[in-house]
Amino acid sequence: MEKLRVGVIGIGYIGKFHAEKYANMADVALVGIVDPDRSRADTVAAALHTDAYADYRDLGGKVDAVSIAAPTPLHFEISRYFLEQGVDVLIEKPMTTTLEEADILIGIAEAGDLIIQVGQLERFNSAVGALKDVVEKPMFIESHRLSIFKSRCTDVSVVLDLMIHDIDIILNLVKSEVKSIHAAGIPAVSDHVDIANARLEFETGCVANVTASRISIKNERKIRLFQKNAYISVDFARHEITIIRKDGSQEGGIIPGMAIEQRCFTRGDALDDELKAFVRSVRSREVPEVTGQMGRDALRVALSVMDQIQAANRRFLER
């Protein structure tokens, strides 16, 4: 099998991992990495036995697919360049800064029969994959994504950095249009919103209460779903699902009348799985797990959440 020629643009915290994963794939040739910090690019390239570039355009004509892990404001420009070159792209979330940019990229990909996969890493968590078998018609959802403060990624809000993971998962499970959004959040230690809460109401009647914080004293990634006759709790970090169902019994067990089932999953390498899924989509031309349209849908809700937060904060400052 001929090796797929892949490049990585942006060798920061995430991009470096992309490059390392590709370099270890037997059916992939990592032909180059790109970063404006040429010293960093040279160091990583030397370790991975590939070429380093300072300008992404230097990869033109040399790649079949690319991972774009550059800062979010550059996603559109870089993605458009490669799509117009006929190259398939994996774009780290959020895919763009505006819906208009996302629409342009999706349009180019559709016209050229090209692959856009959006990097929503949590979709490749083994516990998330198993949710499809147990979630039927959720009526109420509560999610918490909390992180100890790090200086990395404070150039965007916690909504676009962390909450967008849960927005994507919830949209994929509920499969309904969002009817209304109520949100609040503040910039506590950075120039952007560091803690946020959003209440999403769907056309089906489902309500999701979504909280994200990057100023927590602990790390936590959990989601709880309630549907008729069942409560489902997911711990993303522990790769565990707890299912509590009504079973009709009146005695015994931790909760009378309820059956409790615990499912534990192997802690896989979600990024490796994500990138291998991208490579498979590029080779087979199959629809990726997280399409450009799905990335746009999550971005649309995230931007609406931010609009609500910014409007509320302006009103607060005007008082």
Molecular structure report:
This protein is of the alpha/beta class. It folds into two domains: 4-114, Rossmann fold, CATH 3.40.50.720; 123-267 and 302-313, Dihydrodipicolinate Reductase, domain 2. It has eight helices and 14 strands. It has helices spanning 13-23, 38-48, 75-84, 99-112, 126-131, 158-174, 270-284, 292-318; strands spanning 4-9, 28-34, 52-53, 65-68, 88-92, 116-119, 140-148, 178-186, 195-202, 207-216, 220-227, 230-235, 240-246, 258-264. Strands 8-9-10-7-11-12-13-14 form an eight-stranded mixed beta sheet. The mean pLDDT is 94. Pfam families: GFO_IDH_MocA, GFO_IDH_MocA_C3. Residues 157-225 form the GFO/IDH/MocA-like oxidoreductase domain. This is Oxidoreductase domain protein. Residues 4-119 form the Gfo/Idh/MocA-like oxidoreductase N-terminal domain.
Task: Summarize the model shown.
The chain has helices at 13-23, 38-48, 75-84, 99-112, 126-131, 158-174, 270-284, 292-318, and strands at 4-9, 28-34, 52-53, 65-68, 88-92, 116-119, 140-148, 178-186, 195-202, 207-216, 220-227, 230-235, 240-246, 258-264.
Number of H/I helices: 8
Strand order, largest beta sheet: 8-9-10-7-11-12-13-14
N-to-C CA distance: 66 Å
The largest pleated sheet is described as: 8 strands, mixed
Instruction: List SSEs in N-to-C order.
Output: EHEHEEHEHEHEHEEEEEEEHH
How many domains, in number, for the residues?
2
Number of E-type strands: 14
Relative strand content: 25-35%
Q: Which stretches of 5+ consecutive residues score pLDDT under 50?
A: none
The CATH homologous superfamily of the largest domain: Dihydrodipicolinate Reductase, domain 2
CATH classification class of the largest domain: Alpha Beta
Tell me the helix content: 25-40%
Which architecture of the largest domain per CATH? Answer: 2-Layer Sandwich
Mean pLDDT: 94
Q: Under CATH, the topology of the largest domain is which?
A: Dihydrodipicolinate Reductase, domain 2
Class inferred from helices and paired strands = alpha/beta
What is the rounded Rg? Answer: 21 Å
Overall form: globular
